Amino acid sequence: MRDHRGLFCAALAGAAFGCSGAPGAPTADSEVVAPNEVVDFGALYATNCAGCHGENGAGGAAVALADPGYLAIADDAAIRRVTANGVPGTAMPAFAQSAGGLLTDEQIDVVVNGIRTRWAKPNALGGREAPPYAAATRGDPARGADVYARDCGSCHGADGRGGPRASSIVDRAFLALVSDQSLRTAIIAGRPELGAPHARIDAAGGSAISSEDVSNVVSWLATQRPRPAQTASREAKKTDSLIVGGLE
Q1: How far apart are the first and last CA of the chain?
Q2: Is residue 63 located within the same domain as residue 105?
Q3: Measured between alpha carbons, how far is 169 from 163 in angstroms, rounded to an integer?
Q4: What is the pTM assigned to this prediction?
Q5: Domain that holds residue 44
Q6: What is the pLDDT of residue 31?
């Protein structure tokens, strides 16, 4: 008969000194980290941001965060505010726990600092001054129509419904999903991943677009949004339909 005393003693030794060396035992680096304890930028960005802003900040449904031009006009306070609190009325949600999201203040800081340290570039504007990120006053839609015709129509079409080099900019479904600030940011910083130029590039008339011009264009675009009464009327006519919201 086979002697099992050696195996029995080995089993006792394993029980006494732990099972860390046993086959299949978990290693120290395989321990599960609680979601609110994750402080790695790559993990936080991939989980919370990449779906809209693209892998490695390359852009997608929302603005490219890896664009040095965008980061040159949007300071840390602006990026943190939007990340933490979201943008009401758009598809940009609030991520901070204090605003109903899932991220702690420390995690919000990791995201903001990671975006800045990885993708911002010194002197990204080439020494030129761009219009400020936020508008000081509301624009004039009538003047905005003139600015649009001068600086934007050659790409987006004379009526804004699309042209040879760019798509419609007055599509109501699109305008209903983006804020005025998002429109302003896109005009100033452009959407390089979509081939849209930024405000530092000279316009067709030979002069770069001014802050006032940007405000006026945004105001004109805002007038193209569907009014709440119009939206309610259309929704009342929908039957057996599923409405899927887009992403900013």
Answers
A1: 75
A2: yes
A3: 10
A4: 0.73
A5: 36-119
A6: 73
Spatial CB neighbours of 157, under 8 Å, sequence gap ≥ 6 = 163, 166, 168
pLDDT tens for each residue of 17-60: 445 556 666 676 667 889 999 999 999 999 999 999 999 999 98
Task: Give a yes or no: residue 145 inside a domain.
Answer: yes
pLDDT at residue 223 in the model: 95
Does residue 101 sit in the same domain as residue 151? no
Identify which of 67, 66, 88, 70 has the alpha carbon closest to the alpha carbon of residue 78.
Answer: 70
In a domain, 103, yes or no: yes
Q: With contact defined as beta carbons under 8 Å apart, do 130 and 209 qualify? A: no
Q: What is the dihedral of CA 179, 93, 168, 57, to 10 degrees?
A: 110
pLDDT digits (tens, 9 = 90+) for 81-91: 999 999 988 88
